[in-house]
UniProtKB/TrEMBL annotation:
Signal peptide: none annotated. SUPFAM superfamilies: Nucleotide-diphospho-sugar transferases. The keyword Transferase applies. Belongs to the UDPGP type 2 family. The keyword Membrane does not apply. Its EC number is 2.7.7.9. This is UTP--glucose-1-phosphate uridylyltransferase. GO terms for molecular function: UTP:glucose-1-phosphate uridylyltransferase activity. Transmembrane segments: none annotated. Residues 9-244 form the Nucleotidyl transferase domain. GO terms for biological process: UDP-alpha-D-glucose metabolic process.
């Protein structure tokens, strides 16, 4: 088996405008919207670190300074908490600053995910790297990224995360044509289609926001024209790599993920995520669930009365 380079760096694109959450995101990055008491972006960085990736490059844009501040030290706040003897909150504040070695680069223009990834080329160099999208949160109890890195280090090429959805949902995602391998959870990608019509989709396995890319993707992205929506699509570059010889960084694999994923990219799913996380918190669940049951019961009663 070939000896493929280890994956040590993570790239987190965070330059989007967050228009779905306006006006909340007018001055606050969508990545900083809290899931209970921790910003969504911190869960993503924690996932990278848990997978062994302590070098994290954040691709940012205008009005994203608060992301940098969050992962930096806050000395005045720390001193105030220390003076109060509030060790619990002090530890929580310091945790984000001590998570990883953080780097930042601005995308400049919103030219799509492919362009955002291309902005990482100087930092990453010719090493393989992981890409984690902030809108997708993977439950900390599921080792998806670790498995993807393992597949890359065993097979080379690039790796995408796949989830199975109902046929009527494929048009909202990138979709993969797949072939089985000798591993039950690993498939070979033969084609990728961005947001196909339901009757044109090659399968009902969609790409979710985790990738492990060979550095060859940069060479392809440099030549990839804008695609769907006038943006440079990472999916298009990976599709090219799927047809590229392995000794040139080609081959694209898929890891079938059947675990817990939280999509925080739209309001409804964001609210579901907050409720689910609050329901599982030891310090909140008892009181929160008691209130939630009562709220639902009252709501059901009102709905039934109105429906008569």
């Amino acid at each position: 088996m070939a000896d493929y380079a280890r994956v040590t760096k993570a790239v987190v694109p965070a330059a989007g405008l967050g228009t779905r959450f306006l006006p909340a995101t007018k001055a606050t990055p969508k990545e900083m919207l809290p899931i209970v008491d921790k910003p969504a972006i911190q869960y993503v960085v924690e996932e990278a670190v848990d997978a062994g990736l302590s070098d994290v490059l954040m691709i940012t844009g205008r009005n994203k300074r608060s992301i940098e501040d969050h992962f930096d030290r806050a000395y005045e706040l720390e001193e105030a908490l220390d003076a109060k003897g509030d060790t619990e909150r002090l530890a929580a504040v310091r945790e984000s600053a001590d998570l990883a070695i953080m780097h930042y680069v601005r995308q400049g223009e919103p030219k799509g995910l492919g362009h955002a990834v291309y902005c990482a080329r100087q930092h990453v160099g010719r090493e393989p790297f992981a890409v984690l999208l902030g809108d997708d949160m993977i439950d900390a109890r599921d080792d998806l990224l670790k498995r993807m890195i393992e597949v890359r280090e065993q097979r080379g090429g690039s790796v995408v995360a796949l989830m199975e959805v109902a046929p009527d949902q494929v048009s909202a995602y990138g979709c993969a044509a797949i072939e089985a391998t000798d591993d039950d959870d690993v498939v070979k990608i033969t084609d990728l289609v961005e947001k196909p019509a339901a009757d044109e989709a090659p399968s009902n396995w969609i790409i979710i926001g985790r990738y492990v890319c060979d550095a060859a993707v940069f060479d392809v992205l440099e030549k990839t024209p804008p695609g769907r929506g006038g943006e440079i699509q990472l999916t298009d570059a990976l599709r090219t790599l799927a047809d590229t010889p392995a000794d040139q960084g080609g081959a694209v694999w898929g890891v079938k993920f059947r675990g817990r994923r939280y999509d925080t990219g739209n309001k409804l799913e964001y609210l579901r995520t907050v409720v689910q996380f609050a329901s599982e918190r030891e310090d909140l669940s008892a009181e929160f669930m008691e209130w939630l049951r009562g709220f639902v019961a009252d709501h059901d009663g009102v709905g039934t009365a109105e429906g008569k």
